[in-house]
């Protein structure tokens, strides 16, 4: 049996700040997806509001929020691959990613296109009829954002599963002596000065100049720019955790990265709000700089301020994945009804976001955690039943 792990690897200990970034990034998705209802961008449910202030914030975070998640996922992959065989690793990915993906597409996601089509007047009310008679017929109605069936926000899980399989040769290489030696030499070079801020940016810019755009479609078969960017940042996570001094370099350069991050975001805001000569600078190019500078800045400040664990972090780490799977469906259902109440837009936003967090958490605590078959479908560890006195033969 080929073994991709069980080699001595120096991870520099548990990097708790990455756990914090993962939890906070997934939590932020609730507010981001709620915001999609309140800006001019197309979303499954529209509130009728168009907030320039909210859009200004979302224009920033849309450039790096998913890159951050893929980087943290790469770190997790790197940890796993030194503890198990190739077969065990791939099977774990099937259990953790592919099974929840299929289940979500079939059971959790259907309300999203249902309520979208209902609001747009494309179908008659009746969810059971929609799910049993229409959803699995591979239909794409004019005016809908996605076909049926759909994977909507679960594209992240699908991409992660596909990249994981493709990463096996790289993982096997960095787990052998030659690979570890190469990473050690690269680490020694990368941690000098501010290289950690500009060296990883080079492939981002190369991809932009090669394609001439930074369009991400989330459609598996024609999302080549997206595939490059997300696979690349995943690889950064895989290898950076094998070079623990890199985290020190991010922390040491947190203020320079903050300057670049704020300057690039300020430029985007000028281009968005004012007509100036700066508008001649390509928008997509600035977004590439935003993408990496904000990731680097967040890593640096999180390393400095959040490199600790507590009960909340341990608890949140256990539920963040099922929370992600549930959140957008819960959000769309809540939003569909709340936006018809005719309330102030700010109040609607807060009620949808808070309701999504509360209901998703309640479903996890009262339902998902109590049934092993649901824990499996939501990527949670199953619980072994305690052995009774009779079963133990005592």
What does this structure look like?
With 394 residues, the protein is an all-alpha fold. The chain has one domain (16-109, 151-392). Helix 1 packs antiparallel against helix 3, helix 1 runs parallel beside helix 16 (311-338) and helix 11 runs antiparallel to helix 15 (283-305). It is built from 19 helices and no strands. The model has no long low-confidence stretch (mean pLDDT 92).
Summarize the structure.
This protein is an all-alpha fold. The protein is built from 19 helices and no strands.
Number of strands: 0
In the residues, how many domains can be counted?
A: 1
Which percent band covers the strand fraction? under 5%
Distance from N terminus to C terminus (CA atoms, Å) equals 38 Å
Gyration radius (Cα, Å) is 22 Å
Overall, the morphology is globular
Helix and strand succession? HHHHHHHHHHHHHHHHHHH
The tally of helices reads: 19
Identify low-pLDDT runs: none
What structural category arises from helix and sheet content? mainly alpha
- Give the helix proportion (percent range): 55-70%
Query: How confident overall, as mean pLDDT?
Result: 92
**Main β-sheet description:** none
SSE inventory with pairings:
Blueprint: H1 16-35, H2 52-61, H3 65-80, H4 86-108, H5 111-119, H6 127-133, H7 155-166, H8 168-174, H9 177-190, H10 195-198, H11 201-211, H12 224-240, H13 245-252, H14 254-273, H15 283-305, H16 311-338, H17 345-366, H18 372-377, H19 389-392
Helix pairs in contact: 1-3, 1-15, 1-16, 1-17, 3-12, 4-7, 5-16, 11-12, 11-15, 13-15, 14-15, 16-17
């Amino acid at each position: 049996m080929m073994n991709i792990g069980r080699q001595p690897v120096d991870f520099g200990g548990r990097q708790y700040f990455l756990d914090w970034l993962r939890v906070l990034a997934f939590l932020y998705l609730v507010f981001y997806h709620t915001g999609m209802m309140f800006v001019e961008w197309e979303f499954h449910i529209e509130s009728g509001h168009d907030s320039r202030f909210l859009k200004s914030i979302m224009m920033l975070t849309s450039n790096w929020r998913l890159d951050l998640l893929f980087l943290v996922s790469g770190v997790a992959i790197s940890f796993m691959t030194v503890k198990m065989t190739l077969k065990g690793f791939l099977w774990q990915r099937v259990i953790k990613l592919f099974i929840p993906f299929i289940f979500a597409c079939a059971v959790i996601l259907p309300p999203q296109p249902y309520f979208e089509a209902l609001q747009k007047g494309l179908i008659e009310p009746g969810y059971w009829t929609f799910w049993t008679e229409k959803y699995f017929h591979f239909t794409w109605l004019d005016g809908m954002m996605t076909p049926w069936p759909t994977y909507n926000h679960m594209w992240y899980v699908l991409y992660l599963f596909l990249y994981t399989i493709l990463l096996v040769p790289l993982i096997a290489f960095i787990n052998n002596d030659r690979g570890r030696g190469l990473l050690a030499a690269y680490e020694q070079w990368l941690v000098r000065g501010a290289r950690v801020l500009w060296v990883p940016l080079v492939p981002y810019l190369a991809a932009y100049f090669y394609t001439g755009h930074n369009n991400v479609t989330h459609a598996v078969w024609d999302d080549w720019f997206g595939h490059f960017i997300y696979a690349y940042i995943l690889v950064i996570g895989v290898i950076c955790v094998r070079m623990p001094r890199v985290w020190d370099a991010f922390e040491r350069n947190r203020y320079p990265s903050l300057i670049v991050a704020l300057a690039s975001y300020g430029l985007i805001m000028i281009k968005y709000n004012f007509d100036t000569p700066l508008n001649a600078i390509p928008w997509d190019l600035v977004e590439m700089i935003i993408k990496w500078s904000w990731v680097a800045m967040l890593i640096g400040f999180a390393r400095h301020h959040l490199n600790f664990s507590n009960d909340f972090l341990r608890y949140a780490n256990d539920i963040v994945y099922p929370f992600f799977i549930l959140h957008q469906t819960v959000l769309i259902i809540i939003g569909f009804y709340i936006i018809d109440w005719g309330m102030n837009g700010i109040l609607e936003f807060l009620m949808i976001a808070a309701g999504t967090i509360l209901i998703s958490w309640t479903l996890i605590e009262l339902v998902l955690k109590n049934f092993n078959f649901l824990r499996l479908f939501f990527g949670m560890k199953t619980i072994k039943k305690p052995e009774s006195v009779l079963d133990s033969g005592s």
